Every structure is written in C-alpha cells, then in structure tokens.
Amino acid sequence: MTSRLHHFLSGSAYQQYVYGYPHKTAYRAFETPKPLGEVWAPERSGARFLYVHIPFCEMRCGFCNLFTTVNPVETVVERFLTQLEVEARETASAIGGSTYTRAAIGGGTPTYLTAKQLERVIGLMRDTMGLEAAPLSVELSPSTVTAEKLEVLSDATRLSLGVQSFVEAEVAAVKRPQSNVEVMRTLDLLRAKSKAHLNVDLIYGMEGQTEASFIGSLETALRWRPEELYLYPLYVRPLTFLGKRAASWDDHRLSLYRAGRDWLMGHGYQQRSMRVFQRRDVVELQLPEYHAEDDGMVGLGVGARSYTKAVHYAHDWAVEPRAVRSIIDDYLARPAASFRSAHSGFELNVEEQQRRWVVLTLFGDGVSDAAFSLRFGVAWSEALPWLSSLVEEGLATWSDGWLRLTPRGLELSDTLGSWLFSEAVEARMRAWEAK
User: Fold this and answer.
1) Which of 187, 188, 190, 217 has its CA nearest to residue 202?
2) Is the pLDDT of residue 246 over 70?
3) pLDDT digits (tens, 9 = 90+) for 192-214
4) How far apart are the first and last CA of the chain?
5) Are strands 311-314 and 305-307 parallel, antiparallel or unpaired?
6) For residue 268, is it left (φ>0), alpha (ψ between -120 and 50) or beta?
7) Is the distance from CB of 179 to CB of 165 less than 8 angstroms?
8) What angle separates helix 211-221 from helix 250-265, to the nearest 10 degrees?
9) For the residues of 221-254, what is the DSSP string, one character each?
10) Distance CA 184, CA 171 (A)
11) What whole-number distance in Å separates Cα of residue 108 and Cα of residue 47?
12) Which among 63, 392, 394, 57 has a CA at the least distance from the CA of 207?
C-alpha cells in the first residue's frame, strides 16, 4: 500500500471531493429491491439523521454537480412536494419508529421554495417522520432568502449561506451572477432575524482570484462574525460548465488554501477539517448523540441518499439537465409502494465498513483505536495495517491511541480520501457513465 500511496501523492492534491464513502458513482441497481424494514432492522433507532433534498435552484453555477434543476414550472414543484409527502409516509411506516438527533434540508436550494412550501417540508419532517427538537441545518442562497422564510426556519440551529466570493468578477467567472449588495443584505437579514449559527461557504481557485482577493473575501465575511466558514477548493467536474475545459492550477489552489487557513487561524478561528473553520469563542451547542460513522441517515426526496452500516441506497443521480429532469419525472410517477424498498445502492462488507469508518473520522478529529476496536472487534492496525504508512510519510501521527493527520496530511485530505477507496469501489466508479 505504500507504493499505492506514493502513486496518489505524485498526482493532483485535488483528485476528487471526498466527504463520504463509497462515492455515489459506485452505486448500482440491486438485483432485487431491498425492503426498508429489513435494511433498517439491525440499526440503532435512537440516533438517526433525517435529510430532505430539494432539487431546485434559481440558477446553476458553473462548478455545481449537485442533483438539481433550474427554475422548474410551479406545477412540478407542487407535485414534487406532494410526492415527497408520500415518500415520507411510506418510509416512516416501513422503517418503524425512529428518533432523529440530526436533521438537514439541502439541495439544490431549499429556500428556492416559498415560505408556505417550506412549511410543508418542515411539517412532513415533524408530523410524518417524527422529528422533534433535533438540530436542524438548512442550505441557503443569497437571492432566495426572505424574512418570511426565516420565520418558517426559526427553529433551525444552523444556516449555511453559499457566497463563494465577495468579488463579483470571480463568481461571474464560475457562472454565478451575484450582487454583493444582495449578498450583504442577506447576511444582515440573517443576523437580524435568526439566532441560528451562521456558516459562510467560500471557494478558492477561481479564475482571476489572488491571495489578496481571497483574503479580502475572508475579511468581508468576518464582518458578520460567522460561527463557521467552509473553504472549498474549486473542482472541475464532468458535465458541469467548468468541466468542459481543461485547466491545471494545483499549486495556485494550494497556496490559496494555506493563505486562507493561516489568516483565519490568526483571526480567531480554529481548523476542524480541511474545509471547516470554527470561531474559537463559539459555545458548542449541546447536541444529542450522533456519530456519522456508526449511526444511520434517512434521506427523502429525489437526489437524497440514505445510509445504514451495511447498505447505502439512493434514487438515481445525474448532472446533465435533461437527465436530471428525466429522473425527477420518474420520481413523480413512482407508485407509493415503491418507496418502501431500496432499489439502487451499495452493500458494504466488513472491510468496506472499516474503510468508511476511517474516511469519516480521519479527516476530522482522527481515528481512535479504542473506538475502532469497540466497533469492529479488532484494532485498526490489524484490520487496515497499511494506514501506518501515513505515519511513515509524515502525513499523520500516532499517539495516545489516536491516528491524527499532520497539517500536511490535512491539506491533502482529498488525495488521501481517494487512496482509502477500495479497488472494488474504484472499479465501479470508473465504470460509471456520466450523465
């Protein structure tokens, strides 16, 4: 595995955005549908994540490969919400009683919906799925936020605003027409009307962006003292606008990352992962127990994914606009009973579960040998001995029962994440046909 690690390290520092495992391009149709009652039966019911995906946006950014469609006719949105309620009823009935200790609404752009439509989504999460006082995170875009919608989202504990840059020429270069006046109005509104923790998303690596302009965007963001900032490297993805042209700017992205990291750490923020920076004086929310590497996620809405320890499943996924619309049409036409089974996904054997566990822990707090052993009945050094090459290469340290990334390892998180993928997952990903 050391030679394999060297192979990955010799390539791009930005090979793919790794935030989970296995990647959705490794999913395939199951030979026979899997009843959700059987899929969820082995799982702990008292600590689950509820996720709702809203596949609509007012525009499609040039870097975006999320499952979304732009400005659908209103009848499609209403039909989607009606079908979402059907899916929720069937899912809740199939998986039985659940306690949700985390919840999120993502997309797409959830605030593309009207206030009344957002009320319907919140209502099905509470009344149908049984969501109670769990922390709720919601994704926002500047042009879709209103005081009325924030009133509907008054119980949200975290609101995440996709700004990307405060330099209008930079966001224009990635096909995101955006006015700073509108962005700043939205930030003022969020701070005036919401008590939720604020996250601001920024991107580095855009055309024309310099270290000075990137730091300038960070300085501007800090006017509103966000509890979190997420710094995302710009990725060129297949079938997106930017993915249709070739570019190589690894050194530039890495220099921007380091400049932004160092500047934030010198201005009151601590680094929690390659992307996440949290204000040091923030009082941590007293959250109910949830461990992403062990506890399940129930996803609703076309474009959502669901996770148990042994089975991941999802609706179909695409990027190309016509393919997205076709998948949404198929979702709208599905009979209610079809939502009681998983039709496409990935089954994880023990080794795949161990790899996923490492992917979800290594790039944050680190891998706890005690926790790994408790979960799998074996030390990571026995189950995945090749992980020790991270220490040999100076990318991680091993101390007091913890495997933790060094600053160099942390900045190479996406490279190391790809290295952790199994050959079986890689083969499926290579065979996946982009659409």
Assistant:
1) 217
2) no
3) 999 999 999 999 999 899 999 99
4) 33
5) antiparallel
6) left
7) no
8) 40
9) HGGG--SEEEEEE----TTSSGGGS----HHHHH
10) 15
11) 26
12) 63
